[in-house]
Amino acid sequence: MTIPMDRYPTIGNGYCIFPKLIILYCSRATGKIHRSPKKMLLLQQVAALDKGQPQPVPVDFLVSNKTHVIVITGPNTGGKTICLKTVGLAAMMAKSGLYVLASESVQIPWFDCVFADIGDEQSLSQSLSTFSGHLKQISNIKLQSTRQSLVLLDEVGAGTNPLEGAALGMSLLESFAQDGCLLTIATTHHGELKTLKYSNEAFENACMEFDEVNLKPTYKVLWGIPGRSNAINIAERLRLPSVVIDTARKLYGSSSAEIDEVITDMEKLKQDYHKRLTEAQYYLIQSKRLHSSLLNTRRKITEHSTTLRLKKLRDVSDSAAMARSILHKNVRELAASAKKTSQHNKAIESSHVSTTNSLHTASDDKKPTITDRSPSDAKKFDKSSAGRFAVPKVGDTVHVSSLGKKVTILKVDSSKGEVEVQAGIMKLKLKVTDIQRL
Question: 289 φ, ψ to 5°?
Fold first, then answer.
């Protein structure tokens, strides 16, 4: 919510003049649209104020549901009254369906009426002093306000004895809090009203910030702590004689100065708290952003590792399939080679058998029979045949005349008269008659 502090001039009791809509009228003679001459002057005044003037100071009003009375304290010319006017104006704009002057969306209760006691209502004709004028206004507000009303009270208890005014102000605010309106916002300089918050949870303190270094108000609202009037400091800024300032500080007393120091420490603590809270919120947002980034990175890493693992599994599966294919191919090639070698061996064996048979036939024709041989020749023949056709044993080394090399006996099948031999890298099955023992 934006409060125009020094942007626009004031008239009467501190009321602020806002720029209004420029009224246009149409000339019947020419049919052209012209600006109202009276509004041109106001437009020029507003344009002149915009040049080199300080910008409006935004303030935040955050009121909890349990709070019914807000006590705003702080220095003179600090912006307390304009805060009341701003809240009242925002409430009336919301009731009228207008946009509220705020940078963010605004939530405002529906007030059936807005009552305000702002300014001096003294009147000679009605025999009203400043104090009595305020009391008359507050009495009318008390009678007409409901539980859905907004009440704005400026300088409660002012215009009379400070002690009596403070007691009357405390009583009025407590009555508004107990059975009065929905929300009451009051400004005051009485220190006793600042203590209501600590005895009644329906009360809340707020103060207008004051720059102790430059002795100037900042027009910012600090919530939760009471403020100081800083009358002596403001008088010093307004160049009141130093003798008067020093005497006022002495009369003010050390006890009051200690209270002001406590309030100052509270203000500094509040400011430090808001600063740290802002930093914490910033770091919280950053941490949430980093946490989200870390979760996203973790998800990507998990997906990447899963993709790599699946890729490795596919690669291993493809390599295994390729290896199986190569092994099957080699087995088929070895089987074909073994089959070809077996056929070659059979061909050699059949050729050897036919050759042997022909040789035996020829020898039978040329050589005498056993009966015709001498006993010594028969004996030699028996020994030669026994050495040639004796059944070998596994592991024996024999000579294969058809191959022209030595082989090793691997297996002997006596029933078939066959042996299995190892000839280099080949394994062959031969007849016993095809081998000759060494």
Answer: -65, -45
Nearest CA-CA partner of 431 in 386, 384, 339, 415 = 415
Q: Please indicate whether residue 44 or residue 112 has the higher confidence score (pLDDT).
A: 112
* Model pLDDT, residue 298: 92
Q: Is the dihedral of CA 219, 220, 221, 225 positive or negative?
A: negative
Per-residue pLDDT reduced to its tens digit, 34-58: 445 555 666 666 666 666 666 778 8
211, 226, 252: which is the final residue of a domain? Answer: 252
Write down the mean pLDDT value for the chain.
75
Q: How far apart are CA 53 and CA 196, in angstroms?
A: 38
With respect to residue 140, please indicate whether it lies within any of the assigned structural domains.
Answer: yes
Residue 351 backbone dihedrals phi, psi, to 5 degrees:
-65, -40
Residue 33 or residue 93, greater confidence: 93
CATH of the domain at 93: 3.40.50.300
Neighbours of 380 (CB within 10 A): 11
Q: What is the pTM of this model?
A: 0.49
Q: Helix, strand, or coil here: 51?
A: coil
165 and 16 part of one domain: no
Band (255; pLDDT cuts 50, 70, 90): low
- Taking the C-alpha atoms of residue 167 and residue 190, their distance in angstroms, rounded to an integer, is 9
Q: Pairing state of beta strands 183-187 and 69-73? A: parallel
The answer on 138 and 1 residing in a single domain is no
Range of the domain at 106: 59-252
Domain count for the chain, please give it. 3
DSSP symbols for 336-389: HHHHHHHHHHHHHHHHHHHHHHHHHHHHHHHSPPTTTS-HHHHHHHHHHHHHHH
User: CA-to-CA distance for 18 and 5, rounded, in angstroms?
Assistant: 11
